[in-house]
Amino acid sequence: MTTATDSTRTIVTGSKAAFPARRAGSSRNREQLISWAFLAPFLVAFALFLVWPIVHGVILSFTDQSLTGAGGSFIGFANYAEALTDPKMWQSMGNTVWFTLLSTVPLVVVALLMAALVDRGIPGQWLWRLSFFMPYLLASTVISQIWVWIFNPQIGAANNILKAFGLEPLAWLQNPDTNMLSIVIATVWWTVGFNFLLYLAAMQNIPPQQYEAASLDGAGPWRQFWSITLPQLGPATVLILILQILASLKLFDQAYQMLGGVASDTTRSIVQYIYEAGFVSYRFGYSAAISYVFFALIVIIGVAQALISRRRKEQL
Length: 316
Fold this sequence. Notes:
The protein is mainly alpha-helical. Helices cover 75% and strands 0% of the residues. It has 2 domains: 1-49; 78-315, MetI-like fold, CATH 1.10.3720.
């Protein structure tokens, strides 16, 4: 027979058993609130400086908004139709692709050779690493000024080297036949250090036992590099190619500064054309439309590279 005391004990015991569950639920909610509180500053900055500019840019691309404040009315796809038929836009796009092709190959090959030299244990490794990577730490304005002096037609080191070999001096930055090549040379010297570090890190992750076994089998340094090092640098090479192509497609700083802000038909990049359309011609809406056409090109290149990488992995 159940007494009042037993009932009271049951109620008290049951309530005590429910307390831990309630406490666990409240502590879990408190942890979630704390997590969102830490994330809130990042989410606000992400929305203000990334999401909203993208959305606002899409809206602008469908208007005739001007930098002067005039316009702003909805014009549909007129800006995109004009961009797709604009010869200067396609010329700028072609210059950008040409620069990407000219710069990507040496930035990969030279970085690989530099990393191989340091990885083989040549004397003074710290000096080589510092000298290879140091230019990458400099600002684009500094790099541009250095190479403007090097390519100076009268007193530049580039023409002094040509004269030493009995060749005629060149107007490197003024000549349409050489100004893009000059920008490529400056860019390679400036940014090759980053790719060098990526290759060096990948090489140092290769187990040394593989080289020891190959040496015992009579393989020389060249055979070891060709049969052991290169095959295992495949993932690093794909990463470097993707990063380098995306970086080269954004050509603007060094070209704009080395040429004094005056772009020729052979050096005007798509980013500079976007700048000129928005801040020189005051056509914000048209500038936004060109930028999203360029963005679509980058997306296509990224998807194509991802598909190629996946197929290679499947074949392996």
